[in-house]
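Team,

Forwarding the record for the chain on the shared tracking sheet. I've put the sequence and predicted structure together so nobody has to dig through attachments.
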Amino acid sequence: MCFVRWDVLTDELELVARVPLWWNLGDGEKPRAGRRSKYFKEWVRANGGPPRRGDRLFPNVFRQRMAKVEVGDTDPSKSAAPYSVVRKIIEWETGASPGHSVNQSHSQGRHSPDATTTKSYGK
């Protein structure tokens, strides 16, 4: 499991909320991010390209980054106390380090009616 906590900010960079995002990396003894996994897809987008052959997909590519994300609530029928989660990362807005290029995807897909698009800061 990879857990990313996003700080949701106003345009003035004031903290509004902290919202979680979880990526499942499998049930085995060793975590694995398959090529079809959500983790792998977002890692490639955040990294600005695919990993080199044999590279490990370290989660620090997500640290100290800004992105536009879609926030929605969990299903109230499955939880006594629904809470907000990041549904989708729409666009990475900052690079991981100076000179680091970031994929500027603008495909937003469909939004669920209970989702909100906002700028967030990954931790």
